[in-house]
Description:
binds 1,3-dihydroxyacetonephosphate; alpha/beta; 8 strands; cytoplasm; isomerase activity; 14 helices; EC 5.3.1.1
Amino acid sequence: MVSAPRRPLMAGNWKMNLNHLEANLLVQKLAASLTEKQLTEVETVVLPPYTDLRTVQTVVEGDKLLIGYGAQDLSPHVSGAYTGEISGAMLAKLGCTYVAVGHSERRQYHREDDALVGAKVQAALTHGLTPILCVGEGLDIREQGTHVAHCTDQLDAALKGLSPEQVSRVVVAYEPVWAIGTGKTATPEDAQEVCGALRARLAETVDQATADGVRILYGGSVKSSNVASIMAQPDVDGALVGGASLDAEEFAKICRFPEHITG
Ligand SMILES: O=C(CO)COP(=O)(O)O
């Protein structure tokens, strides 16, 4: 059976940048820089800070923009006495379709472990959100040469207990920590090595059809100048873009990567 091609996904993780006024401007500029055909071909998504989401919803819905949006994190809990947390239900109510889970900055600065990341994946799925599950190794692990096992272990832990149908609703992002915000991009071959191993692991632990359908992104210093060679890899289906997604024209160029390939 030939599986359906995976639609490329470009997700801009704004991290803690841009207030709601700036968010409004960036989303409008981004939409104006891409044609309907381009936005249909390549799924384009922004992940702004929570405080921007209502504004982004208003501009996307009001102008019927073909841009998706979501959050950078969510609570593993449904509701209750969790000061400062935001639930999946709240995000879904704002029209979010995606939520990043287990980003290395959350794992590092907020001590999120695999169990918590797994609970957040579950919470996202429960509320109809697509989790973008981030995995990736630090420089020490890369230098030891155990990066593939590190990433597949993180994948296993985060997806533990999910049905094949639930796994099919997850997007995985491979983000080597040493390539984030450093200008040091993994080579296309580095990205392929881990993305390919993640897909092979899904085939082993879930099934081949699910593995073939799951989109796997690469993240870490992606720019318009390097996106095409990364996207040319067979197991890379998109990118999770940090710094370069804060500039509408640059992010639009990244989303237009098929044109860089076909010339
Ligand atoms: O962490 C990232 C996206 O989630 C990558 O960030 P940069 O693109 O700024 O390296």
